[in-house]
Write a structure and sequence with these properties.
This protein is α+β, with helices and mostly antiparallel strands. The chain is about 15% helix and about 50% strand. It contains 3 helices and 14 strands. Strands 1, 7, 10, 11, 12, 13 and 14 form a 7-stranded mixed sheet that branches.
Length: about 190
């Protein structure tokens, strides 16, 4: 009888700890699982905009412009957003290899489920081998069904830290800084 009472007392704690990941909202979960378009050996460095950015007239991504990523005085990567044509593809040049990537992601899957958001990569998401976080980049999220803007996440300036800035529709466009660790703990 005592064993049954002890089990019944700890059952709510066990259920809570098993369901803890379900408490995270869909957007937060998706942000915590984003993958980078560019990976560097270490964080830090500078950027050089070699061609001015031009934003698409009908979308939120750039259709022209070029940016160089510099570490220790060397250009380690370059992203070319195009020549102004309505095209959501950008080209990453890194280690002599040119790789296209899409700036507009209409459909993605996380944990086997279709995302509730369409995404626009405003600035490529960057990761480094010496940091567990995305260290730079800006991504916008839009409701998949209505197309309305939901949030913009700015991952920072290539510094290895847990901080990012979130701007949302719900907060009337006001930005606030949050810790990516908050979601990892969930």
């Amino acid at each position: 009888m005592k064993k049954a009472i002890i089990i019944l007392l700890f059952l709510p704690i066990l259920i809570y700890s098993c369901n803890k990941n379900k408490n995270i909202d869909d957007l937060s979960r998706e942000i915590s699982l984003e993958s980078a378009q560019i990976t560097f050996s270490n964080s830090g460095g500078e950027i050089n905009i070699t061609e001015s950015f031009i934003k698409s007239l009908s979308n939120d991504y750039y259709t022209a412009g070029e940016i160089e990523f510099i570490q220790n005085g060397d250009i380690v990567a370059k992203v070319n957003f195009g020549d102004g044509e309505e095209n959501s593809l950008a080209n990453l040049t890194q280690n002599g290899i040119v790789s296209p990537f899409d700036l507009q992601i209409d459909e993605s899957y996380y944990d086997g489920k279709k995302s509730k958001y369409k995404k626009v990569i405003v600035e490529p998401l960057i990761k480094s081998n010496d940091c567990e976080y995305i260290i730079a980049g800006i991504i916008k999220y839009f409701d998949y069904n209505s197309g309305e803007w939901v949030a913009t996440i700015d991952f920072g300036n290539r510094t290895c830290d847990e901080w990012a800035t979130k701007t949302t529709h719900d907060d009337n466009g006001e930005a606030f800084v949050f810790s990516l660790d908050d979601w990892k703990k969930q």
